[in-house]
Amino acid sequence: MTTSENAPADAAAAKALHGIDLAGKAVVVTGAGMGLGAAVAKAAAACGASVVVNDIDRDLAQRCVDEIRAAGGEAVAHPADISVWAQAEGLIERCLDEFGGIDGLVNNAGLHLPKRSWEMDEASVRRTIDVNVVGTLACAGRAIKAMRAQGSGSIVNTTSGAQCGLDYRPDYGASKGAVSSFTFTAALELAGSGVRVNAMAPNVSTAMLDDMVEFMKERGPWTRPDLPPPEHNVGIHLYLLSDRSRHMSGQILGVRGDGELFIGSHPAILEPTARPDGYWTATAIADVIEAGRLAPMQPLGPTVHLRLATPDAA
Question: Most CB atoms within 10 A, among 95, 246, 259, 275?
Fold first, then answer.
């Protein structure tokens, strides 16, 4: 099924568009008061899931729940600051108490405070890491305990191309690199358990982009990226929450701004490598690199396309 030109107008249209059945599943979505999180919560409910809507803002969380219920879905609001470990655990426990289990967790809540590397300050860095990394790990850790006990479940973390290097995002990019690394580790640990852990990399127009626009305007001319609405990315979440992705774990699935779907690569040691004659001196390392005996240095940034050559490629 291809993506429609416009986002679905209501819950029934969303279910018809995506063709995914989440009936009987209980799903927690963090940071779901607005933007991408709200779009995911509404789409999951439209596809039959019972949803716990989390946001640090009580009114925003309740508004999302009201819209889900008005469309015929089932949802409850649970305001909490997921960067506080006890509150994150309490969020997962609310799902267990309310719906008798947890089948899906979407770690969507995130913070983005743009700065250059030499402009960072302790308060903003710690807040970014607390929300993006600690919040993700705290929610996932409690959910994994419950999912292992029941032998099933899907966790969808939120990463970003910023982990590859991006201007004005030093701490944000670092936090998303940490989320990706956690995704790989948890997936390895949970292999064979029935619990899968993946991540998605969105490209949508949200309040985070609005903040970036205002930030960049103060620094000179900047063209706002032409990104789609949040509803155009929720298909990834629905797929990863559904049984159709039961074979997938430890993967990064994302969408570029132009709509191109991709799977992100894992960190890896590149070939060729080199062996020392005794041990590596600084001069020996320089000689090997200058002679081209190691894999080439890698390009920076999230816009680099990595293509796999086909057998008949020239």
Answer: 95
Amino acid identity at 77 = A
* Residues near 107 by beta carbon (within 8 Å), at least 6 away in sequence: 30, 135, 136, 139, 140, 155, 156, 157, 158, 179
Q: What six digits make up the tokens of 70?
A: 């008005």
Phi/psi at 172 (5° precision):
-65, -45
The pLDDT assigned to 215 comes to 77
Q: Where are the beta strands (DSSP E) in the chain?
A: 26-29, 50-53, 74-77, 104-107, 153-158, 195-201, 252-255, 261-264
Examine residue 272 and state whether it is found in any structural domain, yes or no.
no
Write the pLDDT tens digit of every residue in 144-196.
999 999 999 999 999 998 888 888 889 999 999 999 999 999 999 999 999 99
Q: Is 132 contained in some domain?
A: yes
Q: Which domain holds residue 70?
A: 11-264
CA atoms within 13 A on the CB side of 140: 28
Q: What is the CATH number of the domain that holds 48?
A: 3.40.50.720
For tokens 């989440």, the residue is 22
312 lies in a domain? no
Residues labelled catalytic:
172
Are 137 and 182 in contact, with CB atoms under 8 Å apart?
A: yes
**How many domains does one find in the chain?**
1
pLDDT for the residue numbered 2 = 36
The backbone torsions φ and ψ at residue 76, rounded to the nearest 5 degrees and listed phi first, read -135, 150
